[in-house]
Write a structure and sequence with these properties.
The termini are far apart. The protein has helices at about 1-15, 40-45, 60-65, 75-85, 115-120, 125-130, 155-170, 190-210, 210-235, 245-270, 275-285, 295-300, 305-320; strands at about 30-35, 50-60, 90, 100-105, 110-115, 290, 325-330, 340-345. The strands form 3 sheets. It has a 3-stranded parallel sheet with strand order 1-2-5. By secondary structure, it is mostly helical.
């Protein structure tokens, strides 16, 4: 508004002086976007050289949007494959003031949730063959029974989290110019390198034994270990010094957990209806502590209208070698013995994994 008034006054006075300088439009700082096209993403990345996070409540919208504005299927997928390595990106536009958009480093992360059935349909054979599926860190722990709690997040913990994000955002690149972010190179400490070399060798032996989708996923998990170690180091040390052994050790533990989850998810994607039914029943019993009676199953779900129908499904598990029946004798005054179905080798841990944060 001020510029327009100054320009009008300059024109009226027919001054020999130069016209007022036209101000630049302000740029809003952004850290994340959702459901965005490659063209719009490239424009935003030019204004946000530090990079962006694509956060989707439903990842199906991200996967399904690859060919939204393309005549050929998967038109945007190759772009996302390149962004995995933060490579340069050039987008040619048919309309607009700028016909060509150049992003020196297209740094983008993607996160979101998706149901296994939807993921099965969305991850097409083309996405698997191209390596897109292998670039995703997948996690799908078994469901746990919800329990009411009055616990709240400690305000001190919230403050620490906010402080951590603020310190990460305050990190500077190798250059002072904020419009051109130059990455800072961090080396591995000798101890961290030793841990990574040991992991590298063991991981390589595992990959030799894998085939198909798992082999492709294992090839990307190797590099993800170094990426996670870098993230953990920067969180703990603000990017100062070499990557520590502690950060690398924790990264390896995280990747071992992701291996477990990757196997689980790929098994879910490949299972038949019969296999899914068996898995869901086993997980239901695990949530009960590894033991259940036919009567408990009937009470818990309308899926089993009678105790006999529940017992038939438990007998099927027994036939598959997944459990056995135990007779619990009555205590106290009278009563009848109860048949309890017990899963084999159940140790009380629903997902069979320990916390990746432990050392």
């Amino acid at each position: 508004m001020c510029y327009e008034k100054q320009l009008t006054a300059w024109k009226k006075n027919a001054s020999a002086l130069d016209p007022p300088a036209e101000p630049s439009a302000p740029v809003m700082e952004r850290t994340w976007v959702d459901d965005i096209t490659i063209e719009a993403l490239a424009t935003t990345l030019q204004q946000q050289p530090r990079g962006l996070l694509v956060a989707c409540d439903e990842l199906a919208s991200w996967l399904g949007g690859f060919d939204r504005y393309n005549n050929s299927s998967g038109g945007d997928a190759p772009r996302w494959l390149e962004m995995y390595g933060a490579r340069s990106m050039v987008v040619d536009r048919k309309t607009g003031d700028r016909r060509t958009i150049v992003v020196p480093r297209a740094t983008v992360s993607v996160t979101g949730g998706i149901q296994p059935g939807v993921l099965r349909r969305a991850l097409t054979p083309q996405h698997r063959e191209s390596g897109l599926a292998a670039r995703l860190l997948l996690a799908c722990p078994p469901r746990r029974t919800k329990a009411w709690t009055e616990d709240e997040i400690d305000p001190a913990l919230e403050a620490e989290l906010a402080k951590m994000f603020a310190s990460l955002y305050a990190l500077k690149g190798a250059k002072d110019d904020p419009s051109e972010v130059e990455p800072v190179v961090l080396a591995l400490s000798p101890a961290a390198k030793g841990i990574f070399v040991k992991f590298f060798s063991e991981h390589a032996e595992e990959q030799v034994g894998e085939t198909g989708d798992l082999s492709a996923a294992w090839s990307k998990l190797e590099g993800c270990t170094a990426r996670l170690a870098l993230v953990l180091h920067v969180v703990e040390n603000g990017g100062e010094g070499d990557v520590t052994a502690t950060a690398m050790r924790r990264a390896v533990r995280l990747i071992e957990w992701f291996k477990h989850e990757t196997r689980r998810v790929y098994a879910l994607l490949a299972e038949t209806d019969d296999q899914r039914k068996v898995r869901e029943l086993v997980e239901r019993i695990q949530r009960k502590g590894g033991k259940i009676t036919a009567r408990e199953m009937q009470r818990d779900s309308r899926q089993w209208p009678t105790a006999d129908s529940a017992e038939r499904d438990l007998e099927e598990l027994k036939g598959r070698g997944l459990g056995k029946w135990e007779v619990i004798l009555p205590t106290g005054k009278g009563g009848r013995p109860a048949r309890v179905f017990c899963l084999e080798d159940h140790d009380g841990d629903v997902d069979g994994t320990s916390s990746p944060a432990e050392e």
